[in-house]
Amino acid sequence: MAMTLEELRKLRESKKTDIQRREAEGKEIQVIVGMGTCGIAAGAKGTLDSFISALDENKLVDQVMVRQTGCMGLCHSEPTVEVISPGMPNVIYGRVDAVVAKEIVQKHIIGHELLDNHILNRPAADILK
Fold first, then answer.
1. pLDDT digits over 34-47, tens only?
2. Contacts 24+ apart (CB under 8 A), 90-98
3. Where are the beta strands (DSSP E) in 3-90?
4. How far are the Cα atoms of 15, 49, 62 from residue 100, in angstroms, in the given order?
5. What's the rounded Cα separation, in Å, for the pair 13 and 30?
6. Residue (of 92, 99, 80) closest to 40 by Cα position
7. Which of 86, 105, 112, 113 is most exposed, with the fewest beta carbons within 10 Å of its own?
8. What does DSSP assign to residue 124?
């Protein structure tokens, strides 16, 4: 099946975006989605997809790195997401569904404003021992 020139251009652009999304260099902002079993069971895949589409929509693919991690130990508040952004404290947000993910992109990443009602704290290191 032959592709038209326009279809080839669209394919090239989508692949370029996929590559940019995976590229780490030059990206100071990170969104880390907890994708342990507990996170996945709570809907973290939809959260991850929502971040990716919101970053695409806002043309932030080349500025923000989205990556996955295992369980953060906050299973009661899954899906959990850590956001690392220069000039702001590192924050872990809990109960991040697709709607909250888009809100994090708009308010935290673009607006440099914390979403207080979703912030979680990690247990202190001495408590974990």
1. 999 999 999 999 99
2. 91/119, 92/119, 92/120, 92/121, 92/122, 93/118, 93/119, 93/120, 94/118, 94/119, 94/120, 96/33, 96/47, 97/43, 97/46, 97/47, 97/50, 98/46, 98/47, 98/49, 98/50
3. 29-34, 64-69, 81-84
4. 27, 12, 22
5. 23
6. 80
7. 86
8. P
The residue with tokens 């009602």 is 117
Beta strand residue intervals within 7-49, DSSP E: 29-34
Burial of 38 (0-12, 13-18, 19+ CB in 10 A): buried
Q: Structural domains in the chain?
A: 26-128 (3.40.30.10)
